[in-house]
Description:
The complex is a heterodimer. Chain A is built from eight helices and five strands. Chain A is an alpha/beta fold. In chain B, strands 2-1-3-4-6-5-10 form a seven-stranded mixed beta sheet, sandwiched between helices. A five-stranded mixed beta sheet of chain B has the order 7-9-8-11-12, sandwiched between helices. The longest helix of chain B is centred in the N-terminal third of the chain and has 15 residues.
Amino acid sequence: MDTRDLRVMANRIRRRDLRAVFEAGAGHVGGEMSVIDILTALYFHVLHVDPDKPLDPQRDRFILSKGHTACALYVTLAEKGFLPKEEIETFLQPHSRLNGHPNRTKLPGVETNTGPLGHGLPVGVGMAIAAKLDGATWRTYVVTGDGEMQEGSNWEAIASAAHYKLDNLTLIIDHNRLQQGARLAETNNLAPFAPKLAAFGWDVLEIDGHNMDEIVDALSPDRRNAGKPLAIVAHTNKGHGISFMSDNVAWHHKVPSEDQYKQAMAELEEAAL
Amino acid sequence: MTALAKETKLYDCRDAFSATLVAMAANNQAIVAVCNDSVGSSKLDGFRDAYPERLVNVGIAEQTMVGVGAGLANGGKIPFVCGAACFLTGRALEQIKADVAYSDTNVKLVGISSGMAYGNLGPTHHSTEDFAWVRAIPNIAIVAPCDNIETAAAVAFAADYDGPIFLRLSRTGVPQLLPDDFEFALGKANTIREGSDVTLIANGILTHRALAAAESLEAQGVKARVLNMSSIKPIDEAAITRAAEETGAIVTCEEHSIFGGLGSAIAEIVTETCPVPMKRLGVPGVFPPTGSAEFLLDEFGMSPQGIADTALELLKRKA
């Protein structure tokens, strides 16, 4: 897909995600809006994954470490063909495969169960080492939240990835500056991320995480360097695309009222034109 | 099954673990080892020398160690994730829950120097909660082998077993109890001594002490059955119920807190199937004092004499 088509897809995923959270009466809509452009670029431009062969040993691996934004992943996986699109209606319903956090034993396309923060990157390091041991060309991509980077396990994994020269591993930090309870800057301000990651021996790119051209460019093979893992610090807005949610800490897991839902949907539909 | 005649030689079960791992790795390219600066204490030197690229040492970082294991399993490997049992389980418990058990990855956790093997180093280094912690997590098996033979068999079993398993190994020397051709079966207790008056149930390094206790009880006219219950999860409910029905009294012995481990697991079965008098020997809800593992086991009533005395006391409560 070219970047124009990717933007169209991302907008479609935003609208479906918003509707799913509204209908379910729960979800993490703010963080979903910030990560959807990244997910769209990964699934429709980068990842070698096949819904007909979800466990193909040569597939690329993707981990949504910020697992609370599972709904965005489900909608993306549905667009990709990993589950029927109509199944999104079961999000959070009793016995649905679509838990509040992704589950690999239930849903094809999910690689590891996430939810507790700081788990995805260590698992991604293990995946990347496995590929290296086999001399395989498949790659591992991990998306974390910026608040999630406060978990010490991420920094253990960052050190390990550099030590093992995992140039087949890409970390994308969804840097929307807001965590559950407050702004990152008011909580435990890890920003700026780039110098810290660089100090650990990673290559680092900083991009506008809502600019599809920049996302695609950062994920291009040309931007990788042998012997170094790559971190992409994607500057994003929580609630992106919806005026009253954007950059507003209240929308971590708030559910829009009917009026708010109509306004948000109208804004997304206008943007889609 | 009858236990071997008295052995004087003591075996460090880590040697059986590492020798088995190296031997299996020769024929199975998927086998890898992951450790936390614990090459020496996990006895992985031989594995490292033979397969340096297949030993992943993440340094002192247990959470990442377990996560890396899960990632390696996702990539088709069979990772043996090795570390001191206290830190492997305690520091990485959530990774064990989410990345290994809940994600159903083919990870083999190997907790070394379990129980009070690091006796003198104090309770920070004791692993006397690991059974309880891991037992409460669904979809992960737990095995504490009793000797060198069972350790080797359990390690070979784990490599072939498709799913998460926690092997709990000591570093305290134990005599060989099981015959050389012993075959390990997950979830099956083995009766290493028959008896009808009382049943002594143990695992890990307590099994040989339970056997010695049974021998001393024999001299006093009490016939004690001894079950080696290396599988805590799944547990052999049939053998436990049979022991309750046929012997009417049960003593459990474990190098673990009496809360949440072997004794608790057995009590859960006994209360539901055939309530009989029971006594759980283990660490009774305290932080142990300084001393070697052997000293501490004696201190908490788990010398062979202590176990036998407990059995005699319990017999007074039999209906």
